[in-house]
Amino acid sequence: MDDQKLLRIIRLLYPSARYTALAPIAAGQMEGEEAEQSFVYVSLYDHKIGSQTRPIGDKLVIINNTYLSSFAYNVGLCHLVGAAKGMSAGELARLYRHNFKKFFAEQVIYARNVLIGRSLLIETILYEQDLMVSAFAGVVTSGLEEKARQIAALASGTVSYHELMHYFEARDPQFDTRYRTEVGNDFEDIEAEALRLGGAGLRTEFRCDLAATRVNLDQQTSFSRADLLRVQLFVFYVLAELVSLTKSAAATAAAAVEEEAYIDLSSAEPPQHAFVFQIGRDPDFDARVDAQEKILARIAQGEGLTLFGDGAGFPLTSGTRAILQEAQGSIGDIDDTPAQGLTGTDKLRRGLAQILSESLKGCDQGVDFLLWRSKKFNLAGDLKFG
Amino acid sequence: MGEPELEDFVLRLEGADRSLEDELKSSFPDAIVTPADNFLGGLEIAVILKPVKEVLESVLQFVNRYRDRYKDASITIDKKKISLKGYAPGDAVKILKGTGFMAADDNGGR
Most buried residue among A22, A64, A319, A324 by CB atoms closer than 10 A? Predict the structure, then answer.
């Protein structure tokens, strides 16, 4: 299959993806293999998340979706800005919440063009965008942005290397032996816990996560060793929230199908329909993060470092995960505290967003336009959102 | 009205198990069957098919036969994702008309 045909099939498989590019990658020759192996690395930006490994005809394709890492960039920048400004946990949570809410809105819209998704997207664009601008004012330096880009790259690497591990696992009949030789027994107890909790499937995910972490910890970054350990754990924290939000969004969209029927475009009545959020967590992914926490703490200890710390390079405390989880769990909350200004959505703004959202009933093209126009892309390098 | 230009369409089975892959390959021998591991967990199998009524009808029959084996089945025709929940064998024309790929008064299809 030539590249053009492969690209056409990828576009069929990921119909809403943009910025798709592919490159063949040499992957060596293992014992028992008759020839040099290769795979095709595909980079794209798609609201359908889940970096995937898939055979297409005679090609093995590994998809790297930069959508997730671009959100990791934003959340990472929030974290760095929060530290630079000495923000309280509550202030930081509001920044995280804005980003999680936008991600959730996009995921709902990806699943289905329903009122709640459109409304939350409008909320984040019209009423909360200021939140980021004012929070970042006077603080964001090229140094912080560079760090955020490195966080995004580590997030991207976490997903890509995880998928590569799946590839080698499928390819190598001696995988178990090779894995044990490479990794040793340092984390066997944590692996056994994954097996106990989720069977062979979760153990495989654990192994792929561990491989990704090990590769990331060898990357050249501007972070100190202790900070790099913290960043890697932070990346897993963020991915866990995004994965939970994706599943929550799918459930919310499915439950919101009937909402469209409430919208009467001939009526002058104010919106009466109250949104129903289906927010939950992904216990399997949370278990994977628990495992990473233990692994990274053990690595830190072995190197005479402490995993948690509030140093200037990249502060990560034992409370960071809870703040992220709280922000994720409260994306639909109304914030009527007068002093908060544009740091959350009050009832008036939600009502206005809902009216605008109702007016977009059945307007798939308009919603798609809004979705893509609410982002800012830097195609020469890493992705950025505006 | 001119007939729209049709791309191949994609049948997507989410939450599928591996054994379904072989059954799809034997049911659609000319199609590209591509299973994908997902970072979120789970398996998605996609099948790339010709956009003709007879093929879509075979898809509906397949989905109906294995409905209890996966969580969700959908098709994507020209970027439109259509859940196959609620559709039964015999509904191919209904789907094609609903998506605008077959004129309402067209009784043929491609």
Answer: A324
